[in-house]
Amino acid sequence: MHVARPIVLSILILVPAFAGCLEVERPCPEGTCFPLTSSAFNSILEEVGEIDALHLSEEHDRLGIITMTRFTDPSGVSGETVWLVEKDDERGIRLVANSVVIGGIAVVDYEIWDGGPDTYTRTDGHWMKGRDMEPKYEDPFIEIARLATEDSDHSWPPFRYDVSQFSDLSWTITGDAFESYQVARATFGSEEVYFELQGLPPRIVGLAIYSDGLGQEDLSFSMSIATEDWGQALSTDYYLSYLAGGSYLDISGLADFPRATVPFIPVPDQQSTNGGTISVTGAVPSEMSHEASLSEIEMHVFSDGSSVASLALDEGTANVSSGDGEWWDLEWVDAGFQGLLSHSDTYSVRTNSDDSFEIRIFDNWAQEWTDGLE
Question: Are residue 163 and residue 286 in the same domain, yes or no?
C-alpha cells in the first residue's frame, strides 16, 4: 500500500518564514500573497470549512486520497488504520486499499483495482488477476458515501474533516514559489498541526497532526490529496504500466498473474426441516460486484471433510444419491445477470441425510476454492 507523502518539514528551516506570527502582517489581498499570511490562511480555513472527499470528487475526474489514523483500543493496545482510495473517471478504473494494524499485527490488509473486465487484488505476496464479466464503474467516493449512509456502524474512511476548527490559530507559513507549494504550521493545544497547500490560488492538499513530538510515531492523523493538477501520489500510471501493461510480470519473474477466485462464499440465510428433509437456501448478496460465468463455477456439498455432491452452476440442478439411501438435491437459480454468478441469484440444497454439511464454491477458472481452504 502507498504511504502518505511526509510533510516537508525541512522547508520550514530552509526557506525564511516570511509569514506567520509577525507583529505587523503585510497585506495579502484575497489570499494572493506568497507565502500566505497567517490571517489569510485562517480565512481560507474558515471558507473551506471542511475537507469533503465527495465534493472533491465532483470537482476532479482524477482524485486520490490517503488517510492514516492512529488509535488506542479499549484494552490499551495501540493501532493504526490506513485508507487509500483513488479514481480515474475517464479510464473507468479505481483503487481501494485498506490496512489495519493492532499491536503490531496486521489484521486487515488489501488492495483492489477494478472498474473494467480485469480486476487486480493483493492481500499479501503477488498481485492476483480476477475478472468481472459485467463491469460497472462507479465513482468510489460516491459509493463509499452511499454505503456509509446505509451502514453507519461499519468502519469507513474518514473522508470528511473539519478544518474550520483551526481557523483562529497563529500560523508560520513557508513555501517554494517555483512549485507553488506552501506549508503552514501552528500549535493547537498539545498538538502540532501542519497543512500542505498547492497552486495559486492555494488549495489544501495535505494535513498532518502530531502529538507529543514530531517523529513518525507521533503522527496521530494525516490526509493527503492528489488530483490531476497535483498528481505526485496518483497511482494510475502504476496500474497502466505494471498491471494492465504487464511490467509487473517482467519484474517479478512470473509468466502470468496468479488468478483470483470469484469473490463469493455462500452463507445460507434459511434452514428448515420438513418430514425428514432438510432444506438450506441462500442468495448472492447485493455487495457482489465482480461477476463470473456460471459455466466456470461449481457448488459443492461437503460432509466429513469431503465433497458428497456437486453442481455445475450453468446446469441449474443436480441430484445425487448414495448406496445407503441418502440423496442430495442441489439447485442454482440464475435470477441476476443471465449466465453469470451475480446479485439476486439463489441457491438451495435439500437432503434426507442426518449428517452436518457445508456449502462451498469451486472456481474452475482460478482452480481454487473461494473460501481459500484446501
Answer: no
C-alpha cell at 333: 437459480
Cell of 190: 498539545
Task: For residue 195, tell me if it sits in a domain.
Answer: yes
CA dihedral of 45, 46, 47, 49, whole degrees rounded to 10: 80
Residues paired with 327 in a beta bridge: 321
DSSP-derived secondary structure for 221-285: EEEEEEESSS-TT--HHHIIIIITTSHHHHHHT-SSPPBPPPS------EEEEETTEEEEEEE--
State the residue range of the domain holding 305. Answer: 270-369
CA distance readout (Å), 246 to 110, 113, 259, 260, 261: 20, 14, 14, 17, 20
| Residue 233 clears pLDDT 70, i.e. is over it | no
- Do 187 and 51 belong together in one domain? yes
Cα distance between residue 108 and residue 111, in whole Å: 10
Domains: count for the chain: 2
**For residue 341, what pLDDT is reported?**
98
Average pLDDT over residues 60-84: 94
Residue pair 261/366 in contact (Cβ under 8 Å)? The answer is yes
pLDDT digits (tens, 9 = 90+) for 180-209: 999 999 999 999 999 999 998 899 999 999
pLDDT at 13 over 80: no
